[in-house]
Amino acid sequence: MQPLSGYSIGITAAPRREEFGASLERRGARIVYAPAIQLVPVSDDADLLTATARCLDGALDHVIVTTGIGFRGWLEAAEGWGLVNGLTRSLGRAEILALDAKAKSAIRACGLRESWVAPTERCAELSEHVRAQGSLAGKRIVVQVHGDPRPDLVDALRSGGADVIDVLVYRWVRPDDDGPLRRLVESTAAAMIDAITFTSAPAAISFLGAADDHGCGVQVRAALRDEVVVASVGPVTAVPLLAEGIAVLQPERARLGPLVREIVERVPARRGRAAEAAGHVLDVRGQAVVVDGRYVSLPGTGIALLRELARKPGHVVARPTLLRLLPGDGSDGHAVDVAIGRLRTAIGDPAIIQTVVKRGYRLAVADA
Fold first, then answer.
1. For domain 278-363, is the CATH number 1.10.3720.10?
2. I need a surface site. Which of 16, 54, 62, 216 has the fewest CB within 10 A?
3. Do residues 9 and 267 make contact, with C-beta atoms less than 8 angstroms apart?
4. pLDDT tier at 189, thresholds 50, 70, 90
5. More confident residue, 330 or 279
6. Nearest-CA neighbor of 107 among 147, 136, 155, 142?
7. Which residues contact 253 (CB under 8 A, 6 or more apart)?
8. For 113-123, how does the pLDDT look when each residue is reduced to its tens digit (9 = 90+)?
9. DSSP 29
């Protein structure tokens, strides 16, 4: 088996989702694709043209580039307006700061040169670097953003007296087809997804907003704070999740490769359950179970029951508790017996799950 066999992972990214998903699939994961946002270019937007013209009106002191794709899109739009030569000259006379390596690469690809890159790729570092050079009063600072207006960065500079030109190259909106996103939200609310990944802050905001719109915001946040592993590509992406009190798994380097490695290491540790029952070794792995080395895929109801029984192996789980895990209105007490019977059949040996008369069920752990 692969390290992620049996685990389901949601991917909310649109760009590079196939590459990201394939890396996880090679390690055994089942991938659920549900783009949370789509980016809409605003190259024909009057606001972008106005911001570009402002950059040509006078000398610039600092230029902050937050995304590579956004910076390239801006210069492509300027080329369409016949302003690209003047814009690159104006930008080249200023100190150019880059949020990350992708922004740095885009700056150099356009024939310009950055003077500084944020060490840990946080927007706060950019404003701190500029502030460290002296008073901001009267400084003209360009902030290129992509999808997310970055009000924290812009406000931090304006509060110091700077004249900030914020350049929004793309806007983000919900996908035209939000069916996959709705289904991922519902799976998250029911904790039937083991981990969910985010590669941009707007995607995280959109995901939580979709949960609210579909009437399960409370359940989704509860699942993200407890059972479902939440993974972010970096600290900027994690901000709206942390603000909701949600713990976020982050790699040391904000890249997809390190994120995959973190998921491989941490998801089984968080979502796995191991137990010995009736002489068998059970490894409950997210949405499946391995019994004595035999991989058994279980339906949603079956895995929910088994996970509950495996929380404290050998302890009795009362029927009402198990009944709440089943679909329906919770009024059919016989439904628990039927569901347990199906689960026993699926895992191969009925003795693994023991009936405790008038109380409930337990894993048949010898020393419990």
1. no
2. 16
3. yes
4. very high
5. 279
6. 142
7. none
8. 999 999 988 88
9. P
